[in-house]
Amino acid sequence: MARAAVLGRLTWQVGTVTEIREESPTARTIVLDVPGWPGHAAGQHVDVRLTADDGYSTQRSYSIASAPAADRLELTVQRLEDGEVSPYLTDILRPGYPLELRGPIGGWFVWDPAEPGPVMLVAGGSGVVPLMSMIRAREEAGSQAPFRLVYSVRSPETVLYAAELERLRQAVDGFQMSYVYTRSGPPGVKVRIGRLTPVVLSAPGWTSETAPAVFICGPTGFVEAAASLLVKAGHEAGAIKTERFGPSGG
Amino acid sequence: MGIVSPGFKGRRRSEREKLPPGQYLVTDFPVLSAGPTPRVDTSSWKLSITSGAGLVHSWDWAEFQSLPSEEIHVDLHCVTKWSKLGTTWRGVSLDTLLAQAQTSAEYALAHCYGGYTTNLPLADLLDGQAWVAFEYDGRPLAAEHGGPARLLVPHLYLWKSAKWVRRIDLRAKDEPGFWESLGYHNYGDPWREQRYWGD
User: Cβ(B169)–Cβ(B91) under 8 Å?
Assistant: First the structure.
């Protein structure tokens, strides 16, 4: 599906919001029913277009959070305080509202469940969204590919998909994960507070010798830091795929 | 006009008339790259022009720095929707770099440190439309923005302004580059909103 999904002309489609889930105090998952949606490759994104009643319109890109499926998809949107589009999507949009989108877009930052090799996912903040699509695609496809997620968050309250990740960690063979807390950790638990370190990135079985495919997504500074730590630890630069967003995603 | 989004007001700006369709204004400088940032030392940096017949010309950093450069004031438009207006660069015009190239080529394929490629019609690199830039805002170009030097072709979406450029291959036939093979438009004119295949 990875290649097929980017072929051909991308036309604007109208989806209908069927559900909105609160993922954190500032993030919402928008579940959309999109008749004719072809499915996507895990890791891809869509363009969303909002139009005011006087015809003014603006567009942004959002990563798809759900596993590939026909006719439906989920986006998780982090509200940016001075954003133009994200506050509409998190605070005003309601079930039943239409939402214009086109996609799926991006043929590079994608994981194919037919690939059996190990996969290391490194997320900074809401950069976890396209990586969650890969984790869900793995489970849905019954893939045995070893997965490891390193998820850097400011504090436990900002974790997206916390309950689902905990369930996967306990129940799913071959799925490991570690949190990195940069400001504060879970209450009553002794954890290291601080930035990503080489130690966190090189768990047993997850060194450069295992040669995992690496996907890093997050803010620019985070991605730069994670990618250079991994290159220094001996990972092939060509095995590391990155997706970055600045503070001005809107 | 698209369907109306109930309750959406939007944020109109006075600069909006200068923005291509579907773009919004930023004041910072976002970074988008497909992989780790290559660290290229100017002591080993080289820029070359090649064509079907082989090497046309190459410059090491000192030679490149001795070429006439110019200050460039341009707007940037990224396919991911952000635009940044009035940026200042210093670079060497492709007219200068290609002055000695006797070629019937109609296309160019830029190759970069790190393996990235992008394709353009040769005409879009000429006549004061393109530079190899090495300073941004009065300072050496940072590695994450393509330093030590990057292509700057501001009339096309920014993925055409290849970071960490090391070779420009002049070609008789067009060949899609990295993003052009992965769903992005072959030409990429922001004013015609040529983002993806078929746009």
Answer: no
Per residue in B10-32, pLDDT (tens digit) is 888 765 567 999 999 888 777 78
| B185: nearest CA partner in chain A | A9
d(CA A230, CA A218): 15
Task: Provide the β-strand partners of residue A17.
Answer: A32
Distance between CA A240 and CA B41 in Å, rounded? 21
For residue B31, tell me if it sits in a domain: no
What is the CATH classification number for the domain harbouring B110? Answer: 3.90.420.10
d(CA B114, nearest CA chain A) in Å = 8
B166 falls within a domain: yes
**What was the ipTM of the complex prediction?**
0.88
Name the pTM for this structure.
0.92
* Domains in chain B, number: 1
Q: Minimal Cα–Cα distance from B127 to chain A, Å?
A: 32
What are the structural domains, with CATH classification, of chain A?
4-105 (2.40.30.10), 119-245 (3.40.50.80)
Structure tokens of A7? 């072929």
Task: Answer whether residue B34 is part of any domain.
Answer: no
Instruction: Check CB contact under 8 Å for B80 and A247.
Output: no
Q: Which residues of A fall within a CB distance of 8 Å from B157?
A: none
